[in-house]
Design a protein that fits this description.
The protein is an alpha/beta fold and 647 residues long. It contains 21 helices and 26 strands. The strands form six sheets. A seven-stranded mixed sheet has the order 24-20-21-22-23-26-25. Helix 2 packs across helix 3, helix 6 packs parallel to helix 7 and helix 9 runs parallel beside helix 12. The mean pLDDT is 96.
Length: 647
């Protein structure tokens, strides 16, 4: 039977289960990647599990998130990660070497391989024809040890691309168009596969932009074929021998097909608060901006910086506008310098920052209070930038550059008409300025882990009780992100290797007093629960957003639905992800209600639902519990680490 490309990749890595949508499958993993905001916990988990060395073909630890060194915490963790990489058989990419997804594409990505990463944007690897999936760190730790990765078999959404992009429209607008159509949860349960004659208009880095932000759709992964575009990219990286052709079979079928006429796409922008709230730039044109940030894993290629320099060339950013440039890798920075791009940007008034994620994760570059910040980044969840009540818009490099010149959100087509700008001829360099000297290869040496004072052991988690009587401490709406559950930024993320300390920020973006209320609830009731709407725990893969609430005493969530990674992280740390049944009067649940659930053990073993009662109201709420036998075992044990130790 003819197979699409996603099915081919899954079939070639299938280690267990049946390829039937909705059933659990096990996948063999060839490569793993970690970044420092999640990798410290992964390395501590590897140590706690008693694992010795990575069994994967390639394992890489990157340092690209927590780059600010305002005290010793971040650098202490960098040294810890370097020692852990040496001890456990990882490559190590040090601070300043670049964003994990970008460097991995340059140096390690290979068509046909599977890649698992403790970063939700690991799906960017699909640009090279990889089966690339983001997940929680403990899943990566087990994959590194040679264990299979378990995931629900997704459906395949085929995106047929037709035509060519219009002038001043680029790949960022393609993925923004998909987010305009589907929102932040429309890709849940799908792998997004791109095909069609329009692929020839997209470079490898263009494909990276689109695959990267598949995470914002909620998709399990995104995948492009490995074709001549892929071959030329790998040749430019001195790795043409790594290329192999991979395409869907003739007659391949998809569970759903969407068509996009590339020529019909116009400049788009995501409004503050959600990557899925997308409108044409012309609808918000004229809004004053005080900050424009260019870079990130969502616009990492040399072309994305070159087009900004071209638009700015000979001009200067508008008064009162801060133009921040974050080069995506050391290699891209070298090419920017050699091509004159860097000089043009500096001459135009740009501030050049170090290579890394920076403002994307709220690590510096926080915008002014109440002022609009226009960014070529993948996410703009509330407060993620580091400024409460921030006004962050997501856009393409063309829109960013035009707006930096005018000081207002500007359609780049309008600026081109006014200034007689012509679209530059552009082709990816046949040979990038290769420099892998900063990458440290695993050498098999026995190395002691170097621990700073902020690196604490993982907390011990108890098994799941059969009966719970605990209060609802928080009731939330739809699309609650992991940034709201446990926020990013320069204040919280340096505590990533210290769960007791970072737990003080749990739900603080929603309720600043939550930590104190959680402490009181743990003392009085032994724990608490929360209620939410659709797509709970979307966004970042950081498992701190599950482990830290669990440490505080959270035992379960009652939500209408969950994001894939967020749900698995809850299970991995022993938090039960109950599903609120449609039509039930769950909406009557309120903050401070004390909820009673009994017979949890039998419900998990028999894979049946339960009833939550609120005696004070005479209220009963039916809860679904759709878990596999494996997931039930993990929950009963109190988390995946306990389960592995038990086995």
């Amino acid at each position: 039977m003819a197979q699409n490309l996603a099915e081919k990749l899954i079939a070639s890595h299938l280690a267990g289960g049946a390829m039937q949508a909705g059933s659990e499958i096990a996948l063999r993993i060839d490569q793993v990647l970690q970044q420092d905001a999640t990798g410290t916990l992964v390395m501590l988990e590897i140590e706690a599990l008693g694992l010795q060395r990575s069994c994967c073909e390639v394992a890489v630890q990157y340092v690209d998130h927590n780059l600010l060194q305002t005290d010793s915490k971040n650098m202490d963790d960098h040294l810890f990660l370097q020692s852990a990489a040496a001890r456990f058989g990882y490559w190590f990419s040090p601070p300043g070497n670049g964003i994990s997804h970008v460097v991995h594409m340059e140096r390690f990505g290979r068509p046909g391989k599977s890649l698992l990463g403790s970063d939700s944007h690991t799906c960017a690897g699909g640009a090279l024809g990889m089966l690339a999936i983001g997940t929680g760190g403990i899943d990566v730790a087990l994959a590194s040890a040679g264990e299979p990765y378990f995931v629900t078999m997704p459906k395949i959404l085929g995106i047929e691309l037709r035509g060519e992009l219009a002038p001043w429209v680029s790949a960022k607008n393609v993925i923004l168009e998909l987010l305009r159509r589907f929102g932040v949860s429309g890709g849940r349960g799908f792998i997004v596969e791109y095909f069609g004659e329009g692929l020839g208009d997209l470079s490898a880095w263009d494909r990276h932009v689109i695959a990267n932000m598949g995470a914002e759709l909620g998709a399990t992964s995104s995948v492009f074929p490995s074709d001549d575009v892929t071959r030329r990219f790998l040749a430019s990286q001195g790795r043409e021998a790594d290329w192999t052709a991979l395409v869907a079979d003739d007659g391949a079928r998809y569970d759903r097909v969407e068509q996009i006429d590339l020529g019909a796409i116009e400049p788009l922008v995501a409004l503050p608060g959600s990557p899925g709230d997308v409108v044409p730039v012309r609808e918000v044109a004229g809004l004053p901006v005080s900050q424009v940030v260019v870079g990130s894993s969502a616009n990492p290629g040399l072309r994305d910086f070159r087009i900004v320099a071209h638009i700015l060339n000979g001009g200067v950013v508008a008064p009162g506008v801060s133009l921040d440039v974050n080069p995506s890798s050391r290699q891209v920075l070298l090419d920017m310098s050699a091509s004159g791009t860097l000089g043009h940007l500096v001459a135009a008034g740009a501030r050049i920052h170090q290579t890394g994620c920076m403002g994307c994760i709220g690590m510096g570059q926080a915008p002014a209070t109440g002022a609009a910040s226009l960014r070529t980044m993948p996410r703009n969840f509330p407060g993620r930038s580091g400024t409460p009540g921030d006004q962050v818009y997501l856009c393409s490099p063309e829109t960013a550059a035009a707006s930096a010149l005018t000081g207002r959100i500007t359609d780049p087509r309008e600026l081109a008409r006014r200034c007689s700008l012509t679209v530059p001829c552009w082709a990816e360099p046949a040979r990038a300025r290769l420099d892998g000297r900063m990458l440290l290869a695993p050498n098999g040496a026995a190395v002691e882990l170097r621990r700073g004072p902020n690196i604490k052991p993982l907390p011990t988690l108890d098994a799941l009780p059969d009966r719970l009587e605990i209060p609802v401490l928080l009731k939330m709406g739809d699309d609650v992100s992991t940034d709201e559950i446990l926020r990013a930024g320069g204040e919280a993320l340096p505590l990533r290797s210290n769960i007791p300390a970072i737990s003080k920020f749990v739900y603080s973006a929603i309720d600043p007093d939550f930590h104190e209320r959680a402490r009181e609830s743990r003392e009085q009731f032994g724990g608490f629960c929360v209620v939410a709407g659709e797509n709970f725990a979307q966004g970042s893969s950081r498992e701190h957003a599950a482990l830290a609430p669990r440490y505080l005493g959270q035992r379960f969530v009652m939500a209408r639905s969950y994001a894939r990674i967020g749900r698995q992280n809850l299970i991995n740390f022993g938090i039960v992800p109950f599903e609120l049944c449609c039509g039930d009067d769950w909406w009557r649940l309120e903050q401070r209600d004390v909820v009673v659930i009994e017979g949890l053990h039998a419900a998990l073993r028999d894979q049946t639902g339960v009833v939550a009662s609120v005696p004070s109201k005479g209220l009963q709420v039916a809860l679904g519990l759709p878990v596999t036998e494996r997931q039930a075992r993990i929950l009963l044990a109190g988390g995946l680490i306990n389960d592995v130790r038990n086995r």
